[in-house]
Amino acid sequence: MLSYQHAYHAGNLADLHKHALLAWMLDYLTAKPKPLSYLETHAGRGLYDLAGAEAQKTGEARAGITRALVQGWLDADHPLCRALHQIRARNGATAYPGSPLIAGHFLRPGDTAHLAELHPAEHEALTRVAGFAHIHRQDGFAMAQALCPPVPRRGLLLIDPSYEVKADYDQIPGQIGKLARKWNVGVIVLWFPVLNDARHAPMIAALRRDHPQALLSQVAFAPARPGHGMTGSGMFVLNPPYGLQDEAARIAAIYEAL
Predict the structure, then answer these.
(1) Using CA atoms, how far apart are residues 110 and 24, in angstroms rounded to an integer?
(2) Which of 1, 160, 186, 218, by CA, is between 20 and 30 Å from 21?
(3) Nearest-angstrom CA–CA distance, 193 and 174
């Protein structure tokens, strides 16, 4: 199933949660003078235009990153704000980076990136903006399993599927278990939607049982429109960097105040 296109949802409240924590982790990891690997299983196109027809159709970015910037939810020196400022300086005031370009902002010479994207149009767009990375047109889980443990061994893996394939919920705990055994020092990050039908709940219960030391960050927000099933965003992080729990609490407090 390759119908999902993130351009309709770029910069929404779920992206803000995910990208604020991702940028913080990458900023922390790249502060040390040691090379790292960045892997992403479902990369998308990498760069979005919030003035484009897709984003304007849903208006989700106006309730997310646009509102956050206007109201100052994040400090100007927050890693996500710093990355967004530089990416917009190069690509225009309505540009919004997906996680590949957020990673690209922080990665240094000597770091390695591997991005997987199956959707043909999204893959083609990704190749135009992510020249810093090895780009794979293959199943993201297959790429991650083949490359882990990566070289350099220090690093972060982001798993961010569309969840259009309902089997994702069933297979993710097993996939993460295998990856954690292969790459026991890797920061393995899963994003998931919080749904009002609790479809995600068995997956998270299994992950918490198997990885009790992992960090779980969840935020809640109103549905983007009547009948929309997503009412929050979640991040599950194995081997969370030092200080991430405090940063997750700061981000959660923003959502609690909405």
Answers:
(1) 20
(2) 1
(3) 18
Residue closest to 90 by CA, chosen among 64, 129, 51: 129
DSSP for 124-176 reads HHHHHH-TTSEEE-S-HHHHHHHHPSPSSSSEEEEE-----STHHHHHHHHHH
Binding region for S-adenosyl-L-methionine: 19, 42, 99, 117, 139-140, 160
- Both tokens of 104, joined, read 């690209």
pLDDT at site 140: 97
CA-based nearest residue to 25, from 157, 114, 180: 157
Spell out the residues 6+ positions from residue 116 whose beta carbon is closer than 8 angstroms to its own: 40, 41, 42, 43, 135, 136, 137, 138, 139, 140, 143, 144
Q: Which two tokens stand for residue 55?
A: 């984003």
Rounded to two decimals, the pTM is 0.97
What 3-state class would DSSP assign to 102?
helix
Structural domains in the chain, CATH included, are 6-256 (3.40.50.150)
User: How far apart (Å, rounded) are the C-alpha atoms in residues 220 and 234?
Assistant: 9
Beta bridge partners of 37: 112, 155
CA distance 139 to 119: 10
| Catalytically active residues, by annotation | 160
Q: Which tens digits make up the pLDDT trace of 19-67?
A: 999 999 999 999 999 999 999 999 999 999 999 999 999 999 999 999 9
Interacting residues of 75 by C-beta distance below 8 A, sequence separation 6+: 81
What is the four-CA torsion angle of 173, 175, 176, 178, rounded to 10 degrees? 120
Please name which of 116, 98, 115, 118 lies closest in space to residue 2, comparing C-alpha atoms.
118
